[in-house]
Design brief:
The complex is a heterotrimer of chains A (148), B (351) and C (169).
Chain A lengths: L7 E7 L2 E3 L1 H13 L2 E5 L5 E2 L16 E4 L2 E10 L12 E8 L6 E5 L12 E6 L10 E6 L4
Antiparallel strand pairs in A: 3-4, 3-5, 6-7, 6-9, 7-8, 9-10
Chain B lengths: L3 E8 L11 H16 L8 E5 L2 H4 L4 H5 L11 E4 L3 H13 L5 E9 L5 H4 L16 H13 L5 H14 L14 H5 L3 E4 L1 E2 L8 E10 H7 L4 E10 L13 H10 L8 E3 L5 H11 L6 E2 L14 H14 L5 E8 L5 E8 L3
Parallel strand pairs in B: 2-3, 2-4, 9-10, 9-11
Antiparallel strand pairs in B: 1-7, 1-8, 4-7, 5-6, 8-12, 11-12
Helix pairs in contact in B: 4-12, 7-11, 10-11
Chain C lengths: L13 E3 L2 E7 L3 H11 L3 E5 L6 E2 L5 E2 L4 E2 L2 E5 L2 E10 L12 E8 L6 E5 L12 E6 L12 E6 L15
Antiparallel strand pairs in C: 3-4, 3-7, 5-6, 8-9, 8-11, 9-10, 11-12
Classes of the chains: A mainly beta (148), B alpha/beta (351), C mainly beta (169).
Chain lengths: 148, 351, 169
């Protein structure tokens, strides 16, 4: 029977606050100050974002290292139709970016305007958000280093 | 090690939105069918374990309600994993190694149609540096797809996997997406999130699956041709995408080695590759040559019940062994972003 | 809960990571039938084909036997208090004046208790075995929700014998 089955909107909200610990705490504190830090791993590589423990040896990591605010795209995905929760409300690219001085790459959005500007290996730089508070969204997004 | 076999498997037909039935109503006929096919009386099943995820339907402790489908009175020995049912099956296999019970019911269910699944899956990501940006599951897979393409592959390989999977699904009445299109036709479709087209992505499915395991003598008693679990292992990779090599699956390779995939010829493999290109990564990681039949069921591109599709791979592979179609089969299940965690199970008929 | 927000001179110790997800909740066939019945002022349960127990509200399955429950059974809108509690503590979102009584009511014809409010009676007079009846919202205000029963109240019948509900406590 049509309409027999009931439907109700159900909104699930979790107002989580997450404690971040010393390593991510230093990373987020750096973002608030407008700088980006990684952590040096057991094999000397610099991990950005930093992790508390070495992904290969599980060793505790503590040595924070400043890295650059620009880097290269290691992979990308073009979003033609952004979703409401996405960081940009116009077509953009998700990117993994390896910042200068880092050995791993981080996820963020790239405001490139159109997919034709995208290529793996392209240089991009941070666009900071105004009014930073110490969280990953303090990086508003990345933008191509070369203006269009 | 105690010999343990899959002796029964049942699944619901995967659908985009099962509007009429709640999870228990979807699950109950599937559980009943698996138990009936097993020949093990319901009240004699020694252990019950399920795989599901409360976030899918947005109902906390939904897995407890799922128990209504089992008949948990008088009280039963029961457990649950907030993962795909393949990992529940792993727990059941370990439980049967204890030796005090001889059979186990494993079930999984997912009703993803109630929420926005690609965005619900954001919650499986690193909650500090990734999830606050709300990347969806398709975007995350697209990042892996691009990395894989630029490591020496092309989009035609992806379209070939999709075309073959959906054509195979025409013979699977439980599949959700089945069609006969050529790779060329698929490649004319627009991108969804480039480099992924819609057919490179799994459908969103509602459904359930159940498997009954039996040990040693009981398996021989109830089944003419038990599908013996000769190896099973699961491995995981780091959380951060940027520290992983997304073009390979080292966790699958290791799990496959530990499960003994390469010890003998593989007749058929059911690989849980929700995105087309991931099948190629998995074949390579498991060392499966072009002569191995992969995903005769259509795989996850034809039906992808979240938390159930991995268990379905084991059930389908076991079915091929039990019906005599294969002597040795490999089943694989994955969990997490970009093939983060992988389980490999080797199933064999009696020699 | 911090009113002023984190101190910008202190190292970052936590991040806000709210989750907001929207779902279309669908209760399934059995619960939908039940709630549609409530809208019409009827209480529809389901009987288990194996153990014959009647579930209200029904969920489409007998949790004890693990079988579908297809047979629909209408039960009375009156029953017996099997257990109850007196709520004295104010809480966020509270709508009812304190103290009030929440009770489990074994409806006549049902085999599991229904959780609802008990009003029009002093809290200290509520007891196990008390006979109660539903007070429905006026027909034009009824919706497919248990709120269409405003509350239960004492029916004035003599207390039920303990033997009649001892298996449902």
């Amino acid at each position: 029977m049509a309409g027999e089955i009931l439907v109700a909107t159900n909104v699930l909200e979790y107002p989580y606050t997450r404690t971040v610990g010393p390593v991510l705490g230093a990373f987020f504190t750096g973002l608030r100050e407008g700088r980006i830090q990684g952590v040096r791993a057991a094999d000397g590589r610099v991990l950005v974002p930093p992790t508390e423990y070495d992904p290969l040896t599980s060793e505790e990591l503590t040595e924070m290292v400043d890295v650059g605010q620009a880097g290269v795209v290691t992979t990308w995905a073009w979003v033609y139709a952004p979703r409401p929760l996405h960081p940009l409300d116009r077509p953009f690219a998700w990117v993994l970016v390896r910042l200068d001085g880092a050995d791993t790459s981080m996820l963020h959005a790239l405001d490139a305007g159109e997919p034709e500007r995208m290529s793996t290996g392209m240089r991009v730089r941070v666009r900071w958000r105004e009014g930073r508070v110490g969280e990953i969204q303090d990086i508003a997004c990345f933008e191509p280093e070369t203006p269009s | 090690m105690r010999d343990v076999a899959v002796v029964a498997f049942a699944q619901s037909r995967a659908v985009r939105a099962e509007e009429g039935a709640n999870e228990v109503e979807i699950l109950m006929p599937v559980v009943s069918a698996a138990i009936e096919r097993s020949g093990v009386p319901r009240k004699e099943i020694g252990f019950t374990v399920s795989g599901s995820c409360d976030y899918l339907a947005g109902v906390p402790f939904a897995f407890v309600q799922g128990l209504d489908a089992v008949g948990a009175w008088p009280p039963i020995r029961e457990s649950h994993v907030e993962m795909d049912g393949a990992w529940a099956l792993y727990e059941a296999w370990v439980r049967l190694q204890h030796g005090d019970v001889d059979s186990a019911l494993v079930y999984a269910f997912g009703k993803s149609s109630l929420g926005d699944l690609p965005q619900v899956l954001t919650l499986q990501l690193d909650p500090y540096c990734m999830a606050p940006l709300w990347p969806d599951s398709i975007s995350i897979a697209a990042l892996q797809a691009r990395a894989w393409l630029e490591a020496g592959h092309d989009e035609r390989e992806m379209a070939e996997v999709a075309a073959r999977s959906r054509k195979a699904a025409l013979a699977n009445p439980m599949a959700q997406v089945a069609q006969d299109l050529t790779p060329e036709e698929l490649l004319k479709q627009p991108y969804l999130v480039s480099p992924l087209r819609r057919h490179d992505c799994p459908p969103i499915s509602d459904g359930a699956a159940a498997v009954v395991l039996a040990a040693g003598g009981l398996a021989r008693e109830v089944s003419e041709r038990p599908a013996w679990i000769r190896g099973i292992d699961h491995r995981i990779e780091p959380h951060g995408l940027g520290v992983r090599d997304l073009t390979h699956s080292p966790s699958t390779r290791l799990a496959g080695e530990r499960a003994g995939v390469g010890r003998a010829t593989v007749d058929v493999a059911e690989l849980h590759a929700p995105f087309s290109f991931q099948e190629v990564i998995l074949r390579q990681a498991l060392g499966l040559g072009p002569d191995v039949e992969v995903n005769p069921s259509g795989g996850a591109l034809a039906a992808n019940v979240m938390m159930g599709a991995g268990l379905v791979r084991i059930g389908e592979a076991a079915g091929r062994v039990s019906d005599g179609g294969a002597g040795r089969a490999v089943a694989h299940a994955t969990s997490g972003p970009c093939l983060q965690q992988n389980l490999v199970c080797v199933l064999e008929a009696d020699q | 809960m911090t009113e002023a927000g984190p101190d910008p001179n202190e190292p970052v110790r936590s991040i806000r990571a709210p989750v907001h997800l929207e779902y279309h909740f669908m209760p399934g066939r059995a619960s939908s039938r039940f709630l549609r019945g409530v809208e019409q002022g009827r209480l529809l349960g389901q009987r288990c084909p194996q153990c014959a127990k009647v579930y209200v509200p029904p969920r489409g399955a007998c949790a004890a036997c693990g079988v579908p429950t297809d047979e629909e059974v209408e039960v009375a809108d009156r029953g017996t208090v099997t257990t109850f509690c007196v709520v004295n503590v104010p809480f966020h979102g509270q709508k009812i004046k304190l103290p009030y009584v929440s009770a489990t009511i074994l409806l006549d014809g049902a085999d599991i208790g229904l959780f609802h409010l008990l009003q029009e009676v002093d809290a200290e007079k509520v007891h196990m075995g008390m006979r109660v009846e539903a007070v429905w919202a006026p027909p034009e205000q009824r919706k497919p929700t248990l709120e269409s029963i405003l509350h239960f109240r004492p029916s004035g019948e003599p207390d039920a014998d303990y033997e009649t509900y001892k298996d449902h406590v």
